[in-house]
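Model it.
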Amino acid sequence: MTVASMPHPPLRVQPTRIGDSAVGVALAGDLDMDTGDVFRTRVFDILNGQLPAAIVLDLRELNFLGVAGVRSLCEAHTIAATYGCALTIGHAPEGVRWLLSMLELDRVFAMP
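Modeled.
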């Protein structure tokens, strides 16, 4: 089996209500050019369905974050802002934190 013929792992996007005004979104799998649309669509659905004041991303189970995945995070942040919703990262693996820091996106996404 070649790398090109290997199945792509799915991205799981699991929203959970946090109190009255926020939604937590746990991502598991890979966030890349094949799964970015799934993520952005789920964020859009959350905004249209619940209009929370904040979306808090939990990236602990994220296996891979590609450049297209970073772009998807930025696009989701912009989309949320147009709805008056803050999109933050609540939990992220050290590698994701490092990548976002190197791209100076730790200034865009509030991370504890």
